[in-house]
Amino acid sequence: MAYFAPTTLNDALALIASETVSIIAGGTDVFPAQGQTPLQESLLDVTRIDGLTGLHWGPDGLRIGAATRWSEIANADLPDGFAGLQAAARTVGSVQIQNAGTIAGNICNASPAADGMPPLITLGAEVEISGPDGPRRMPVEQFVTGPRQIQLGARELVTAILIPPLPAHCRAAFEKLGSRTYLVISITMVAVVIGCDAMGRIDFARVAVGACSPVAQRLMGLEADLIGQMPQQVTVSPDHLAPLAPITDIRADGGYRLEAAAEQIKRAIGKAAVSNG
Fold this sequence. Notes:
This protein is of the alpha+beta class. It has a domain at 171-276: 2-Layer Sandwich (Enolase-like, domain 1), CATH 3.30.390. It has helices at 9-18, 30-34, 70-75, 83-89, 95-100, 103-108, 117-122, 140-143, 220-226, 254-276; strands at residues 3-4, 21-24, 42-45, 55-58, 61-65, 126-130, 136-139, 144-146, 149-150, 157-163, 171-177, 188-196, 202-210, 217-218. The termini are far apart. It comes from Parasedimentitalea psychrophila.
């Protein structure tokens, strides 16, 4: 096996085409999953590729390089609509993990409990993918199709996360439930982006729940019902949670996850509404 650390995208794509490699960014998921088993494939480290790190504003919104580390996202000067993403960044493992783990690595690992997925879904994020046929893009919720399953070709590489502009009055929040604050897999998590009109009523709403289905889910029925409501009067019904399919495991049973998610949604909306005020 070999270790490759290209500095250009073209070199990285050439290596993917010619070598059998495992792509790593921070390696915070790859190496623990390996356990005691020796590595069989060569490693392609994408963290040194020009253009794959940093947050950059353009006319179409925010571009986050695929190898941007969570600590950089957490500490960036971003509008209030990104508060949910930044809160999630601060819950990804420990500070040491946040200094190594990357946003695209979190997505490409495709865990049902990936902290970055719910806030990215509420931000309308898209994944930019580069390959031999040039770049393409797709919504993040379509890119991740199931546990450890992503829409990435054998000769392709994720190069960025693209987030379009939000209405200026939008605010966001993120809620995570686990057995402790750090180094924990989520039992449930919720991200919201909401906006309120001059009367304090919700006029923009996106809600996504993670760790309650194979892929984080946006609750579009709930979003529609939130329009026109006062944040303090929000109710979450079983019908609103119908897209979810929580499992029962060592961390929690499915019924508890649904109850917890409903409460987290109300808390997150309340938190975002306070920042709207």
